[in-house]
Structures are given as C-alpha cells and as structure tokens.
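Reviewer 2 asked us to include a model.

Predict the structure of this chain.
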Amino acid sequence: MRTFVRIVVAAMLTATNGMAFMVVDRGLPTINLNDAAGAYRCNVNWTLENQPWYCVGDQVTLPTAFPYYLVDTIRVWVVGEYTGLELFVGISDVLQSSTTYSATQVTYANGEGYQGQSGAFLDMWQLDFAVDRRVQGGSALNFALKPDYDSDYTFLLASNAALSGSPQEGADDLWGYWYWVSTDPDRYGMGFWSSKGNGWDKSSDINVQVFGLGVPEPATMALLGFGGLLLLKRKRG
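Predicted model (structure tokens):
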C-alpha cells in the first residue's frame, strides 16, 4: 500500500508541477525531405496569395488525458516573411489573436532548409506564439496565421503525414483556411482543403506543436493532498 501511494502521488506531482509539456506533436518531418526524395517527397508549404480576408491554418484535437489544458504556446514553421505576423486561435466561436512570438532559424533533421520550386534552399523559421487559452480535453483547437499583407508572402510549412517519419498527431490529410465574415474581426468561418490534386500530388497537414499544462479533476487534486499527508505521516512515524 505504501509503495502504491508513493507511485500515485509521484505521477500526480509530475502532472501538476507547473511545467508546460508538449500536448500535441505534429512537428516537422524527418525523412523524405526535399527533391532528393523524388516521388516520396513529403514536405510542402502553403499560402493564400492576394486574399486579405483569408488565412492558412489547421485544426488539432487535444488529448483526453486531462479534463482541461492551459495552452500557453503554439509552434509553427514558415518560410518567407517572418515579421509582423499574427496567430488567430479559435475554440467554437471564441476568437483570440497573438502577435507575441519568438522567431528562431532552424533546418530540417538533415540540416537542409526548405527547397522551393526553383531548387533553391530557403531559410526556415520556427515561430513560438504566446497564447493563453483554457481548452477542454478532447476538443478541437483551430488556428490560422495572418501574414503582413503589405510585406512579402509568408508560407506555412506542412507535410504528408504517412511519409513524414515523425509523430503527426491528429493529422487528417487536410489543412484549413479561415475567412472573416464581412469585415468583422470577431467573426470567422473555417473550411478545409485537400492538397491532393489541388496544387500537389499528395495530401498534407500543417506542421504544428501545442504546449501547455494539464488541469486534473478536483477529485484528483484532493487525492494528491491526501497522498501527501500519508507520506508526511509515514515519514514522521
């Protein structure tokens, strides 16, 4: 009994120690990269040119390990312009945006950048957007990246899940696009698009990682306190 209580308490302490962890992992692909992969190339990028009321994005579904998550960071990758960007995050009809982010130049696992249609290798940027959303476990989280339309184009990186060689959690072979109803910034709609036969020969999903904290049930927190008292009593005894 003593060993069991210690194991349970240790697990709950790990989940509630205030340290953010990766909630959803649909990161960059690690194999079948660029033109060297031939017909098996898995990486691609997307933007919507000259569409000021549309943005490229996607949807992720949070796991059910916790009843709620406090999402604090959403990570995406781009080529092209990486300044002056805004990330929109939506749950049902509740919309939030963030212009607070860090940009870090990165490469794929093979040390290469993104190879464009010309054959040239382009710089890749990892963008970590600060957000503050309480999201129910098992629910969908929508996101879209709004570029600076007065500047150069921004392309979100994506990949074909089956050929990526890395975890592609929640991939459904579709990427999303947001559109604003009239010009009201608080109202949006979202559609989904298959790239297979529509600009590419494969389906794709936007690469994204979501970080946050798990929020246990109140009963779990009570058990944590009870277990801590048991250990304290045992130690004193």
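The first strand starts at residue 21 and ends at 26. Residues 1-16+216-237 form one domain. We have added this to the supplementary material.
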